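The data layer described in this paper is built around a simple, fixed record for each protein. Because each token names a local backbone shape, the row as a whole describes the fold. We quote a single record here, exactly as it is kept in our systems:

***
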Amino acid sequence: MDSDERKPGGAGLPGGADRLRGGSPEESSQECGLKLRIAELERALERARGAHARLAAQIETEGVGRWNLDLASDRLEVSNTAARLAGIPEGDGTLAAGSLLECLPATARMDWAAWIEGEAGDAWQVDFPRRSSGGLWLRMRATLLLDAAGRPCRCEGILLQVPSPEQADAALADAAELLRSVCQASPDFIINVGREGRINFLNRVQPGLEPDRVIGTPMWGFVREDDHAPLRQALEEVFETGETRELETHGDGPWQSPAAYNSRLGPVFKDGRVVSVTLVATDITRLQRTERVLAASTTFLHKVLDATPDLLCILNVADFSLDYANPGVAHVLDYTPEALRAMQGTLLQRLVHPDDLPRTRQIRSVLPAMDRNTVREIDLRLRDRAGAWHWLHARYVVFSDDEAGVPNQVLVAAIDITDRKTALAALGKSQERLKLATESVGIGVFDYHVASDTLIFDARNCELFDLDLPPGKVPNSCWTHNVLEEDLVHVSREVARARAQRTLLDTEFRLQLPTGLRYLKVYGRFLYGPGGEPYRMVGVNFDLTEQRLLEQQLLQAQKLESVGRLAGGVAHDFNNLLTVVLGYSDLVLRKLPEGSIVRPHVKKVCAAAERGAALTQQLLAFARKQIIQPQSVDLNELMHSSEGMLRRLIGEDVELVTRPEPTLGRVRVDPGHMMQCLINLVINARDAMPHGGQVVVETGNLELNHEVAAGYGLEPGSFAQVSICDTGTGIDPQTLPHIFEPFFTTKEQGKGTGLGLATCFGIVKQSGGHLWVDTTPGEGSCFRMLLPHEQGTLESPPSVDLGDLPRGTEAVLLVEDDILVRTIAKMQLQRLGYRVLEAANGVDAELLLEEYDGELQLLITDVVMPRMGGNELARRLRARFPDMRVLFISGYPVEAHEAELHSSLQKPFRGEELALKLREVLDRA
């Protein structure tokens, strides 16, 4: 088989179009590639020209003249700036070369001639005074360009104004005077020495010592003898490496006092090499003395802190890491100071109780405004090394500031008050437990006094019964106002039974409140006096409304799940049957001649089967188990393309209005499914307006924050919204909760399946969006779809020209448990030329291959089969046939997704689809 037959549609153009073009596909491809490359080069050249023009304009703006000399024609091109500087006439920019060279001195013209002859390198530069310029000096710089043979062909250069030698000398003298003044004013010693260490320059000497006596003398005589070796080594390293060195030296000799100096040695370069070294010596004697005093003070402070029995520590304000901790910290928390310092910035998170962390962190925000003499206090809990919590009463004060006056250290002194806190907590333990228990579960506590027939309600009970009363004593009858009548009889009977039998009151009742129905649970127990008569009942009420609603939602979800499972199973079996119908219909059509009167009937069978396939897709959409083929879709284009069909569907008495949002973002959806949703919703709107009206289809962009998105069960982000609004009858409150349920319909028998809205809901949810409805009875409804904007580009599948079906001779193993599907698939494969082995399941396939010694190019298998499924069979066979390709076929697409397969074909499929898919799988690189 040639390469064209191995690919769907062939490698060339249909119908021999390659020959009509007058060349082979390879030649045409090369020619197109060459043209594209030439176009790219032309665009690059145009960009380079633009950049060159912008650069030339910038140079001219900065007062630099440009010139260009063609050596072959002696033709000179100069800019207006260059002509003005050279003192030559400004014209059309074209002159003889001599006009520019005439402004040069004679010696410069000789150098120019020698340079042109190639005796002075690739670049040339000269500074010269302009004639009749009144002291104006110019600098001419040129670069020589060579042709392809390596000969000089062109010269490009610039001309600019520079200071005169007198001006340069004056500037140099000013700079030298400034440098001398700076050196004299410096408090440091600045010395320049040569390689042998002899002094070339120094900025000052001690009083009574002449500078002339110091210049030229070795510097070793002015430092302490034990500093000679390290100073010599540093000097040599600077000369050798050209890098700065730093060391501590000590003064000695006639011009330095016996002080300590921080000496920095830096190189002085000339022509790229180190010719001398400059040494800057800073007196650090006082600094070292201060450091010693500070160290002694710090040692004394640490001794005082170590002797204190309480917890004392110094914290760094930046991250509250530990700078110091006394032994008291180790005694209470059982951590060594080293272990605490190792925690660094995690000290608070690891030691402070989570409830106390916010208050502790808040200290940082108030530190800058704190009076440095003000002591603050805080109670907090710290965890010791064993995990036990200690209550501490801490006092803290700013300990030190940085150079900007911002606190950088805090001194903290604390005592352990754990025992005190434990005693106080134990005192009100029982009351606190009761309070926490009732508040945590939303329980309302009541106390009924029989003799006075009064109740004591807490705030929660007042809230539960929707009473506009303060907590405390309330009339006993107040709780009965909103109780449903049948429930009030039941509760009264249960109270009487609990009183008579001395049992626990345990019952439920409902309240009809303005906000809706509320379910309450009541527990109570009577207290009896010495005579056996009840005098008091104490109990609790708590809200069961949310629990009951969740139970109802769970029952509804279970019902939907059961129906969805049933729908998926029906679709799976129906797809097998449709595969057989379509397969045999295709075989019959290929056997019948074109003029046969039977062909239209067979085509109607195919059309009916395809309509059945569409029905299974609706069932799978409801069950959210259909395969979607997402593409980058513009919903405006989808709405526009379907507008004509929609107008025909809704009839002449209904007005269709479309309002597309021009900046609508694209979405990733299956366009066929979205079209189905749009049609279903528009038809649903039409049915809600039996006497005519208006349907508005509108698109727009919407941003959802976390709170709003969570309400829709979505992730926050950017969404496209499609609204289908009508002026119909609206939806009543009793019907509204059921509109997305499968098989639920308000239409007459035979006019609705109850799958339309359920299918739309499944499609939108599977596309990552949300569908809901806003409605008012008598005023119409508005269904809204939210679909997330696409984050990337997903290309639509390319269209395929079927033409003649591609054939093959490869060995194919067909594994399918449905004998009808297996039979028709085998006939289709053999008709296409493939060698077919068949089996009913994975076990039979392995037994069949035990006696097979040939090659196996392709495995076609169902996913779910008895005894062994297709996924397991594929893994086992690949061990024997590593180059074998796999094509999974299934009437229940979710199976393929769960198995993470690479190639699959959904049932029902026609012979053409199978043929094309086979070649796609077998010819894949």
Observations:
- DSSP finds 30 helices and 34 strands in the chain.
- The first helix runs from residue 3 to 6.
- Residues 1-23, 793-803, 894-900 have pLDDT under 50 and may be disordered.
